[in-house]
Amino acid sequence: MNIAIFGGSFDPIHTAHVKIVKKALTKLDISRLIVVPTFVNPLKSNYHIAPQKRYKLLLSVFSNIKNVDISDFEVQQKKSVYSLDTVKHLKKQYKAQKIYFIIGADNYEQLPLWSGIDELSNLVEFVVATRSGYDIPDDLKTLDVDINISSTVLRNKIDYSYIPTEIKNDLKEILK
């Protein structure tokens, strides 16, 4: 079985995340796409929306999209989890032969900082979701997304036009 893993803080989830998932389902040779929200990103010290709430928001957004699973593996650990550990867990759970690991263009630049990056690189094929202003090497597989929004920008000034319809009201309640 071929799978794709799309991990991140999703703090908050936005329309670019949804577009990444939909593009991956059509462009990659996969049976399942697993979205994995972090408890807290290992390169960050906190989160804004509680992990369990982000997990539930992701369930709401992706519940009607075929072949998408939401994994609570990292949330259940109640601590930072390295991507390498998540990949090993999901590889075993799904009995995956091939694993694509989807990251945003902004995160691609941070890969050298990731724990166990050499081993992780041997286990997965990285797929980079494009964003204007970031250069991606030509030899990498990409998903053309180019929605110029980030969760960081949305946390600083929420613009609900970038929030998936399924969770707009829930997010308004959470962010009160």
Q: Features of this protein?
A:
alpha/beta, Rossmann fold, six-stranded parallel beta sheet, 8 helices, 38% helix, 18% strand, globular
Which range does the strand content fall in? Answer: 15-25%
The CATH superfamily name is HUPs
Q: What spatial form do the alpha-carbon principal axes imply?
A: globular
Largest sheet report: 6 strands, parallel
Structural class: alpha/beta
Straight-line N-to-C gap? 42 Å
Look at the structure and give the mean pLDDT. 94
Number of separate structural domains: 1
Give the CATH architecture. 3-Layer(aba) Sandwich
Strand order of the largest sheet: 3-2-1-4-5-6
Number of discrete helical segments: 8
What gyration radius follows from the Cα positions, in whole Å? Answer: 15 Å
CATH class: Alpha Beta
Specify the helix fraction band: 25-40%
Order of helices and strands: EHEHEHHEHHEEHH
CATH topology annotation: Rossmann fold
Low-confidence stretches: none
Number of strands: 6
Strand-helix topology:
Layout: E1 2-8, H1 15-27, E2 32-37, H2 51-62, E3 68-70, H3 73-77, H4 83-94, E4 98-104, H5 105-108, H6 117-123, E5 125-129, E6 141-143, H7 151-156, H8 168-174
Parallel strand pairs: 1-2, 1-4, 2-3, 4-5, 5-6
Helix pairs in contact: 4-6
Description:
This protein has one domain: Rossmann fold, CATH 3.40.50.620. It is globular, with a radius of gyration of 15 Å. By secondary structure, it is of the alpha/beta class. It has eight helices and six strands. It starts with a strand and ends with a helix. Strand 1, helix 1 and strand 2 form a beta-alpha-beta unit.
